[in-house]
Structures are given as structure tokens and as C-alpha cells.
Amino acid sequence: MSTQTRLLFLIAAIVCVPIPQESLVMETASRKTFAGLIAGAAVVCFGAPAFANPVTATPAGDHFSAGLSSGTNATFSLGSVNVTCNHSSTTGSVPAAPANHGDPVSTPITAPVFNNGSGNTCPTNLGVNATLAVTGSWAFSLDANASGGIVGTLTIPKGGVSTSAKLFGLNCTALVAPTGPATLAGTWTNGSGGGKPKLVFSGSVPVQPGGGGLCPSNTSATLNISYDITDTTSSPPTQITVTAP
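Given the sequence above, the corresponding C-alpha cells read:
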């Protein structure tokens, strides 16, 4: 096997890139010689991430509150039914050092509140209110993508949201994450120019519909939530900041 081909295998093992087909044509003896190298490349590429993307959240140990970003709503869409809440909030803490640095940095949060100012109901586009019961252990986690952007994940526990609404004379229901925890992807943006940091989530989550008849029968729903993050520990208040190396 040529020196060039040997180097190609070594590079592939390190950075997990495909090897050109023409470089795989080699004598039987050479294949045996480099069988261990090829297996090692597979371990590197498939057994563990090629690159870690840790982040650091500060101030370590500070408490925070999360509330809907100004001018936004939390929305829950199941088929043709759209639920719109003008209030949602939760609280949590930046992990104490050294857990405030990692890939990812994770913290439990209180089960979020969703309503239109009070109680646990929000209006739908069909002129009736939906009731949202939120339970279980929720969490935020943050890490960095390959380009250095901060990405977030909202973990919803099994059965974390149960919705119901009287539609078409039926009690239509939807249970979010019916078989196990579900995750919702998002992005973190540090505050600038006096603005607060934002954690924005948007995506699809599995649901178990109920009610039959004309009730929505979709097995996934779309959630959209944009939170402003406020440090509630520091006085005067400081901004919670998340950085990637």
C-alpha cells in the first residue's frame, strides 16, 4: 500500500471522513495489514463523537427565571387546532462550578406554567379554551454546535403536558410525550445592548390523541416557545451568559 493511501486511512480515522472508493482497492496482504487500522477508525467515528463542544454558563450557581419574550406567545398546534398562551414561565439555576462547564450543561427547571394570565387555560382558534395540565421533572440543557453557536434542548418528561378541550361536543385530549421523555430543540442567544438572553424552542413532539370522532388524531404536535432569561440572584442583576471556547 502506498504512503499516500496509508495517510488517507489515518486521516479518516481521526476526522471521520469517508474514504474514496478508489483508495479501497488494495492487495489482500495490505488489507490484512491495515485491518486493525480500519477497525480503529470505526471505533473513533462511531464509538464516540469526533469533537466535543462544551460550554460555560455564568454566573455559576445563580438562580434564574424564564418568561415569554416580549410580544410572543407560547403556541401548541395539533392538526387544525391551535392553542395560544400569552403567559408561560419557569425557574431554575445555573449549575454550581464545575458543573456549569460541560457538554452539555444541564439544569432541572420547575414545570412551566402555561395560561392566559391565570389558571391553566389558553384560547384556541376554534373559540373554546383548552386546559393544560403540566407535571413532572423538566430540564434545560445547553451545548455548542460545530460552528460555535449555542444550542438548547428542552426535556419534557413522560406525560409532561396533558391538554383537553370541548370540541364538536367531544372532550378532545392530547398527551405530550406519552411513552417517554421528549426533547425540543432550540437556540440560546446572549443578551446585548441591554436586552435579556433568549432561549427559543421550536419543533415537533409526540402526542397521544384522544376523544375520537372529529377530534384531532395527529400523533405529533408543534410547540413554539421563546423565553427571556432573568438572573434573580445577583444584585444589581447581571446577565446570565453562555460561552463556547
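The chain has a mean pLDDT of 84. Try to locate this feature in the C-alpha cell string yourself.
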